Amino acid sequence: QVQLVESGGGLVQPGGSLRLSCGASESMSTLLSHFTISWYRQAPGRQRLLVAYITRSGITGYSDAVEGRFTISKDLAKKTVFLQMNDLKPEDTAVYFCNDDQGIKRDSWGQGTQVTVSS
After folding, report:
1. Beta carbons within 8 Å of 119's beta carbon, 6+ residues apart
2. Under a CB-based contact definition with an 8 Å cutoff, are residues 94 and 41 in contact?
3. Which of 12, 51, 53, 99 falls between 20 and 30 A from 62, CA-CA?
């Protein structure tokens, strides 16, 4: 089991940008080479929802809410998955989580990283 750790969240004004990172203590390169990694987010009182994903072959997908504004990528050398978030809006405020399909299936999540978009 690989433990994923999210970082890079913070407070930003509407229209600003943040770059989130998802790394692991070990075996991240193997994980990125064999499994789909996804970003989810959860706002207070709301369900945890899929934001973006990247497959083992590098195919990406996005929710309608973030399409055109967010970009997911991975760097095997750095053993990291990134979520570049541009033109942030107040409705993007949430705790952001990264996970693989196995973690999602067993409902196993990390601490996440808080993103707050406010003026």
Report:
1. 13, 14
2. yes
3. 12
Give the closest residue to 97 by CA, choosing from 83, 112, 80: 112
25: left (phi over 0), alpha (psi -120 to 50) or beta: alpha
**Running DSSP on this structure, what letter comes out for residue 37?**
E
CA 38, CA 54: separation in Å to the nearest integer? 6
Structure tokens at 62: 């996005």
Half-sphere exposure of 87 (CA within 13 A, CB side): 7
